[in-house]
Design a protein that fits this description.
428 residues; alpha+beta; GMP Synthetase, Chain A, domain 3; 3 domains; six-stranded antiparallel β-sheet; 9 helices; 23 strands; globular; Peptidase_S1_PA; serine protease; disulfide bond; Streptogrisin C
C-alpha cells in the first residue's frame, strides 16, 4: 500500500497532495507517550569532557515556515513516489535535476541540465507561498547532463563492471557541484595499498570524466539494555550473537503496533531480546537488500526513543515523522555510539552496495567536523530532528550503513519505510 505523498508529476502540474500521518493512542493509561516511572526520566545532565559538552551545546538552526515549505517540496522532487526504482538512479534525473546544495535556512541551488524546465521547477517549489519563497531558490548549470550520469550510475551497478574494477563494498551518490558520481569504497584493500588510480581508471573507462573514486576507510551495514515493555526505539536488541538497534515504534495499517530494525540484522522469524527482555520477532522483511528494513512484532511498543549521549535529553517522545529536507540538521541514536546531533542531510539519492547487493535511494548525512556518528551495532538506529526546547522528536529515518570510518551515515527514509512496511510512525 502506498503512503500518500506529493509526487513529482503533481508538483510540476501545479497540484499538491498532502501527506497523512496517523497518530495512535498512547501505550500507557495515564499520559500517552510519557516515560514509564520505572525507567530513567529525561535528563539534561552535562558530559564531562569539553568536546562532548560542546557538541551537546550546539543549537540547530531553525528555518522559517517558508524555508521549511520549500525544502519539503524539494524533497518530494528528489525521492521516489512509492516503491524504489530497481536501478537506484535518482528520480530527479528524469526532470533534468542533477542535484541540490543548500538548506532551508539559507536557500537552495538546483543544479540542472538543459532539459530541465526551470520555470516549472520554480513554480512547483514556490506556488502558494509568500513572495520570499523565490529567494530560497536559485539555479546552476550542470557540467554533465542527467542522461550521461544515468548511464554512468547503471555502469557502476553492473556486476561485470564491478568485478572487472575489483569493487567490493561501496557507496555511490552524485556530487551536485561537479555533476559527477562519487564512488566511495568501504575499507577496500586495493585502495589502501595504492590501487585507487587503477580502480578509477577501470570505472572511468565505462564513463569517462563522470566518476570519482575515494577511499572510505572502515564501513559496512551498521543499546540500551535491558529495555522493558512497552519498548522504546533506540534500544539494544540481540539475537544469537547479532547486535543491532531498534528503530522507532510504528502502527501497522492492518492493525497493531510494532517496532523496526534494519533488514540485514536478521531474516523473518528472528527472535530478539533486549537484555533478558523479549523485544520482538522480525516480520515483513521483503525485497532485501534493495529495502534494508523490517518490522519487530510480538510485544508492546511506545512512542518514545532513547536519546542519551550527546543530545540534551536522555529520551524523547515521537511527535511527528517525515523525510525532512536537504540541509536539515538531524541526530542519530544508536545503541553503540548513542545519540549524536549536528548531522546535516546531504542527499536522498545515495546507494550502498556490498556482497549481498545494493540498497538504493538512501539518506546520506555527516557532521561538518567528521566526528564518528555510526559504529557496528548501530544498524536500525532512529534518525530524528529534535525539538529545540522540549523532549520531543520528529523521526526522519533509520540507519542501515556507514563509511568514512563512521563519520558518514546512510539511512532508509521514513516515507520509504512507511510505504514498504505498510506502517505509520506511532506518535504521542
Amino acid at each position: 500500500m502506498r503512503m500518500p505523498t506529493t509526487t513529482v508529476s503533481a508538483l510540476l502540474a501545479g497540484t499538491v497532495a498532502v501527506s497523512v500521518l496517523a497518530a495512535a493512542p498512547g501505550a500507557r493509561g495515564a499520559v500517552p507517550g510519557e516515560p514509564d516511572p520505572a525507567r530513567s526520566q529525561p535528563t539534561t545532565s552535562e558530559p564531562t569532557d569539553p568536546a562532548s559538552a560542546a557538541v551537546r551545546a550546539e543549537v540547530d538552526p531553525e528555518p522559517t515556515a517558508t524555508g521549511r515549505a520549500v525544502g519539503a517540496r524539494l524533497t518530494d522532487l528528489l525521492v521516489p513516489d512509492g516503491d524504489k526504482p530497481t536501478d537506484g538512479v535518482p528520480v530527479s534525473f528524469g526532470i533534468g535535476l542533477v542535484g541540490v546544495t543548500g538548506d532551508p535556512v539559507g536557500g537552495y541551488t538546483l543544479v540542472v541540465d538543459e532539459t530541465a524546465d526551470r520555470g516549472a521547477l520554480l513554480r512547483a517549489l514556490t506556488r502558494g507561498l509568500d513572495r520570499s519563497a523565490r529567494s530560497y531558490v536559485d539555479f546552476a548549470d550542470a557540467p554533465h547532463p542527467a542522461a550521461e550520469l544515468t548511464e554512468a550510475w547503471r555502469a557502476v551497478r553492473d556486476p561485470a563492471v564491478r568485478a572487472a574494477a575489483g569493487l567490493g563494498a561501496f557507496t555511490v551518490d552524485v556530487d551536485p557541484e561537479s555533476a559527477t558520481l562519487v564512488v566511495t569504497t568501504a575499507g577496500d584493500a586495493a585502495l589502501r595499498t595504492g590501487g585507487a588510480d587503477a580502480l578509477a581508471d577501470a570505472l572511468g573507462a565505462v564513463a569517462p570524466g563522470l566518476i570519482t573514486v575515494e577511499s572510505g576507510g572502515a564501513g559496512g551495514r551498521a543499546s540500551r539494555s535491558p529495555d522493558v515493555a512497552p519498548h522504546w526505539g533506540g534500544a539494544r536488541i540481540v539475537s544469537s550473537g547479532t547486535r543491532c538497534t531498534a528503530g522507532f515504534s510504528v502502527v501497522r495499517r492492518s492493525g497493531g503496533r510494532a517496532s523496526l530494525t534494519a533488514g540485514h540484522c536478521g531474516p523473518n522469524g528472528t527472535s530478539w531480546k533486549s537484555g533478558t527482555e523479549f523485544y520482538g520477532v522480525t516480520r515483513g522483511r521483503s525485497g532485501f537488500p534493495d529495502y534494508d528494513q523490517a518490522r519487530l512484532q510480538g510485544s508492546t511498543y511506545a512512542p518514545r526513543i532513547y536519546t542519551d549521549g550527546l543530545d540534551r535529553y536522555s529520551s524523547r517522545a515521537v511527535h511527528n515523522a517525515n523525510d525532512g529536507a536537504i540541509g536539515d540538521v538531524v541526530c542519530a541514536s544508536g545503541d553503540v555510539t548513542l545519540s549524536v546531533c549536528g548531522i546535516v542531510i546531504k542527499s536522498f539519492t545515495a546507494t550502498f552496495c556490498d556482497d549481498v547487493g545494493c540498497t538504493t535511494h538512501l539518506m546520506r548525512g555527516r557532521r561538518s567536523d567528521d566526528r564518528v556518528i555510526v559504529r557496528d551495532g548501530d544498524s536500525g538506529a532512529p534518525v530524528y530532528h529534535r525539538n529545540p526546547s522540549k523532549p520531543r522528536a520528529s523521526v526522519r529515518g533509520m540507519v542501515i550503513a556507514y563509511d568514512q570510518g563512521g563519520s558518514r551515515l546512510y539511512a532508509e527514509r521514513y516515507t520509504s519505510i512507511a510505504n514498504h512496511l505498510d506502517v505509520t510512525a506511532l506518535t504521542n
